[in-house]
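Example record for the data management plan.
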Amino acid sequence: QVQLVESGGGLVQAGGSLRLACAASRSIFGINLMGWYRRTPGNQRALVATITGDGRTNYADSVKGRFTISRDNAKNTLYLQMNSLKPEDTAVYYCTAYSTIWGQGTQVTVSS
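Corresponding structural encoding:
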């Protein structure tokens, strides 16, 4: 069993940047699919980005060109670099492994 803990959220001005981290309690080397989802204030849950074990990435259209997902297997950590943040990015961000194991989320609030 692996536990995931997100960090790095906070309050940021529009146009700013944040880097989210998802620390896993065990090695993520063998986890093929990991990703980030977010739940907006309207309680909508949506894909942000995913990454496979071989580095293939997938992004929601709304974040393409602004967000970058990466993983550091040596550090057992998944990252989400968020640049050019918009108020519409305000949400609770969750990391996931296999789309079945979830962290508790970290709040990102972008002010206009």
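Summary line stored alongside the record: The radius of gyration is 13 Å.
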